[in-house]
Automatic annotation (TrEMBL):
The protein's name: 7-carboxy-7-deazaguanine synthase
Claim: S-adenosyl-L-methionine is one of the keywords in the record: yes
Native species: Persicimonas caeni
GO molecular function: 4 iron, 4 sulfur cluster binding; carbon-nitrogen lyase activity; magnesium ion binding; S-adenosyl-L-methionine binding
Role description: Catalyzes the complex heterocyclic radical-mediated conversion of 6-carboxy-5,6,7,8-tetrahydropterin (CPH4) to 7-carboxy-7-deazaguanine (CDG), a step common to the biosynthetic pathways of all 7-deazapurine-containing compounds.
Subunit structure: Homodimer.
Annotated pathway: Purine metabolism; 7-cyano-7-deazaguanine biosynthesis
Binding site for Mg(2+): T43
UniProt: substrate binding residues: I15, Q16, G17, R30, T73
Location of the Radical SAM core domain: 21-212
Protein EC: 4.3.99.3
Lineage of origin: Bacteria, Deltaproteobacteria, Bradymonadales, Bradymonadaceae, Persicimonas
Keyword set includes Protein biosynthesis: no
Length: 212
């Protein structure tokens, strides 16, 4: 029987730049391919190419870093069905596993032990029509939602979406992230304070470190 394989862009060890785990050492497993083309995407190199790797090889490389926190990212990792046995295996071996997904594909099959960081695409991304709203019902209280904000229109859209779908009550954390180099973080912070929102300002630590 053929071993499960994934098309992999890279595995690397760095500081987690986002989510409630921001600032912690983390192993990133970046899978290849994406079904979206967000206007502000910072990892277009993951759209194509990549090398096929067995789950054994991927797990062995993750183990080599000696770090308990692992994030599965992309691209869009849910495009590859074999990501599910990878996540389950990592959970079985005692890792804390995060997955960052665009929210355009079904999250229901994800192992319940995995912390889902689900993006919602605001209008400024150019991909707002790709949001799969049915996913919201699948979010666990321990999951997180991230919305990247380009401008005031995106901010107002994000606030309405969070309130309409009761995201503040549904998940552990909601993050608003300014498009790096486009929206001043102080401006976004002031908007959050003015609206008295229970959201976390997400500044993408890795961008200030000079890495993607």
């Amino acid at each position: 029987m053929k071993d499960d394989q994934l098309r992999l862009t890279e595995i690397f060890y760095s500081i987690q730049g986002e989510s409630t785990r921001a600032g912690l050492p983390c192993v990133f497993v970046r899978l290849s391919r994406c079904n979206l083309r967000c206007s502000w995407c910072d990892t277009p190199y993951s759209f194509k190419g990549g090398d096929k790797k067995s789950l054994d090889d991927i797990v062995a490389q993750v183990e080599s870093y000696g770090c308990n926190l692992v994030e599965i990212t992309g691209g869009e990792p849910l495009l590859q069905p074999d990501v599910h046995p990878l996540m389950t295996r990592l959970c079985d071996e005692g890792y804390e596993v995060l997955i960052e997904t665009s929210g355009s594909l079904d999250i229901a099959p994800i192992d319940d032990r995995v912390r889902v960081i689900m993006d919602l695409k605001a209008p400024g991304s150019g991909e707002v029509e790709k949001n799969l709203w049915e996913n919201i019902a699948e979010l666990k209280p321990t999951d997180e939602v991230k919305i990247v904000v380009l401008d005031r229109q995106d901010f107002d859209w994000a606030v309405e979406a969070c309130r309409e779908h009761e995201l503040f009550e549904r998940v552990d954390e909601v993050h608003f992230s300014p498009v790096h180099g486009e929206l001043d973080s102080n401006t976004l912070a002031n908007w959050i304070l003015e609206e008295r929102l229970p959201v976390r300002l997400n500044l993408q630590i890795h961008k200030f470190m000079g890495v993607e």
